[in-house]
Each structure stands twice: as C-alpha cells, then as structure tokens.
Design a protein that fits this description.
Helix content: 25-40%
Strand content: 5-15%
Largest sheet: 7 strands, mixed
Shape: globular
Protein name: DUF2586 domain-containing protein
Radius of gyration: 24 Å
Number of helices: 10
Number of strands: 13
Pfam family, one: DUF2586
InterPro entries: Phage_HP1_Orf23
Low-confidence stretches: none
Structural class: alpha/beta
Mean pLDDT: 94
Length: about 400
C-alpha cells in the first residue's frame, strides 16, 4: 500500500439539492363508496397519478355504476397538481374518527384531508359534523401530528335559501376545517346524484400544488408544473377537458348571477367558492377561509400550513436534545446562556429554511436562560415567524395628465 500524502474527503450538499417536499401530500376520503377491484374499504392507498386509481378499479365506470364521484375527484386533484401525491380511502359509511387518525399516523406525509360525502342529504347538524373533524385534528395535534386543513362539502342545496340565511360557518369555531361549496356545472349535470356535490378534489389539488404560504385562490402560483410554465396565471379552467368553464354554488346558483353583496356575504360567512374576475380569463377559488372568526390568526388555510410547517421543523430540530444533559451556571443555578443559545440556533436554523424559500419573511427563537427545569417543568422555548402578506385586492390610482411628474 502506498503512502498517503494528501487525503481528499468527499463532501456532500454543495449542489444545494433538496429532497422532494411533502408539503402538498393529501388524503381523500370518498364516502358512499364500495370496494374497488383492487382496493378494499377503509384501506389507504397512495397514488401518484390518476392512472394509479384506474389500476385499482376506480375509473369512470366505477363512478357511473355506483352513482358517486370518486374517479372524478381523483382526476381533478391530479389535473390541478400533476406532480401531486394523494392517499385515497374508500368509505362505505363505517369509517370512524379512530380509523382516520390511524391512517394519518401511519402515513406521516399527509398534511391535508378532503372529505367527499356522495350523499344527496346534508348532515343533520353541520356544527357537529364540522366539529367532529376539528376534534380529529386537535387529537392528532396533541400527539404532535399536525394536519393543516380538512376540506368538507357544504350543506345548503336549496336555491330558495337566501345567501343572507346561510349558516355562519365561522361560528363553528373549527380553525382547521374549511367548507367548499363550489361546483363545476358540467359535473353537476352528469347525474341527479351529483347535483349536491362540491369540488373537494379540485380544492385539494389547489392546496397541493401551492407552497404552504400561498392562498388557494391565487391567480398565479409560485412553482408551476412544467407543462404550465410560461402561462401568466394558473386558472382552474381547462377548455380542452371542459372543466370550469363556469361555476355554481351547491344550491345551483350560477356565480355570475350573484351580486357583489352576496359574494361578500359568502366570504364573511367563511365559504369557499369558485368565481371569476371581470375582464380576466379563467375561474379561481375565491379564498381559503376556515371555520373560525376572521380575526383569528388561523382564519385561512395558508396560515395553518405555515404554522404547522414551522412547528414541525422546530420540533424535529430540538428532538435530538430531549433527555440530554443541559449545563447550568454554577452561580445562578439557571441554564448557561451558551446552552440556551445553542438550542435557539438549532430551532432557528431549521425554520430559517422557510425564509430562504420565501414561505415566511423572518423567524426569531428565544430561550430565557433563567429557567429551572425538572420532570414537571419543561424547557420553555418561544418562537415567532413573520407571515407574508397576501394581496386580496388592489386599489390602482390612475389619471390623465399633460406631462409626467
């Protein structure tokens, strides 16, 4: 063996490559379902394309035979996000909250859930229905398993019901649950059984294709799938496939027939619709409301997604120090400042990846060294993230002049 004069160490990371993000991985629960050819009830299966669903036996014939929408919602998810990952569960009405929690805990990449009822009747009590899904989120969060959003279908089907009489979805106090009442009229018209459906697959795809900080109603998106690059927007409308050429509410009202007051009322009450902008092509989700008061920090889906990602990054960075020794200042008996600073740096460095990705505008993590920790007194870490602004409207002052100032 020759002498080794110079050792060359192989380094990694200099190319700046990253592992694929799991921020947009979703779970679709399809109610009113029966066993598919290759998928049993209440079993979660991950799909990376609509062709995967067809291979399981969830194809247009499955929808037609069973008078439900399953393939359609999956197809819409992948149409909106061709690069998405979607877990699908078929539910015959016996899927329990514990079943859902088990699926989510076993498939840790899932960040959002969509629930399709396939039922012409509304839930007997929408408050209880919505609260049930928020309870699932809360119980998972208590086990440090965060789900940012649960999308459910609305419950107003009668076009005689004035929008002013719609229930106030914000009163449900469910900050992780959103009610979608948008319909593609072409899908609504396929069968009478579809007349009360809501576009859960489309909305889930809209979440999946966007970064955590983006509103699902954004006219454009930050990272388009390759086949859409060069376009100036990211509309739901697809003329070739006859999708979202117009839009309705679940009660059958055409969005185009709504007054400005009615559109504002739907937003005030916290409903997610699909609409258009005068003089601009395409249809888009109106906003990303959640079922909680507007003043809440978590009244929109993107707020929850940002918080959850920051929380997960911070927690993961600190986990290796759990049950570790923490040196104390021998004079004060409190934590040594250098030890506190090291832990601060671990969490801050992890969350700062969101700053470099422009998902947040800043982050600060602080640990007060003057703490005495024990079995019953956890180390208290405080953090703040600066949430990006969302442009909901613009006011453009434009006038005529004889010369430019």
């Amino acid at each position: 063996m020759a002498l080794n004069g110079v050792s060359v160490n192989r380094l990694n990371g200099g190319l700046g490559r990253k592992n694929p993000s799991t921020d947009g991985v979703c779970l679709l629960i399809i109610g009113g379902a029966v066993t598919a050819t290759s998928l049993a009830l209440k079993v979660a299966k991950e799909l990376i394309s609509v062709e995967d669903a067809v291979a399981l036996g969830i194809d247009p014939t499955y929808d037609d035979t069973n008078d439900i929408l399953a393939h359609h919602h999956i197809d819409e998810f992948f149409r909106v996000n061709p690069n998405g990952n979607l877990f699908v569960v078929l539910d015959d009405g016996t899927l329990t909250a514990d079943n859902i929690k088990t699926i989510v805990k076993e498939n840790t990449a899932i960040k959002a859930i969509g629930v399709v009822r396939n039922d012409e009747d509304a839930p007997a009590d929408m408050d209880v229905y919505v609260s049930g899904y928020q309870t699932i989120v809360d119980e998972l969060r208590a086990e440090s398993r965060n789900i940012s959003a649960v999308l459910v279908e609305g419950a107003v089907f009668d076009d005689e019901t004035l929008i002013s009489a719609y229930p106030d979805a914000r009163a449900y106090e469910a900050e992780n649950v959103s009610i979608v009442i948008a319909q593609d009229p072409i899908i609504r018209a396929v069968k009478t059984e579809h007349e009360t459906y809501a576009a859960i697959g489309t909305a889930l795809g809209a979440i999946s294709v966007r970064n955590v900080n983006e509103n699902i109603g954004s006219v454009d998106i930050e990272n388009k799938p390759s086949s859409y690059r060069g376009n100036s927007n990211y509309t739901l409308t697809d003329g070739d496939r006859q999708r979202w050429l117009t839009a309705k509410l679940q009660d059958g009202r055409d969005f185009n027939s709504l007054t400005t007051v009615e559109i504002k009322a739907l937003a005030t009450k916290g409903y997610i619709c699909v609409g258009f902008y005068n003089g601009y092509p395409g249809y888009y989700f109106t906003d990303s409301h959640t079922c909680t008061e507007s003043a809440s920090d978590y009244s929109r889906i993107e707020n929850n997604r940002v918080w959850d990602k920051a929380a997960t990054l911070g927690r993961t960075s600190l986990m290796p120090r759990v049950k570790a020794n923490l040196l104390k200042d021998p004079i004060t008996g409190f934590i040594r400042e250098i030890e506190a600073a090291e832990l601060e740096s671990l969490a801050q460095t992890a969350i700062e990846t969101m700053v470099s990705s422009e998902e947040i505008s800043g982050v600060s993590v602080y640990i007060n060294p003057e703490q005495t920790i024990s079995d019953d007194s956890p180390l208290v870490v405080k953090g703040e993230v600066v949430f990006n602004d969302i442009i909901h409207e613009m006011s453009f002052d434009l006038g005529l002049t004889n010369k430019l100032q």
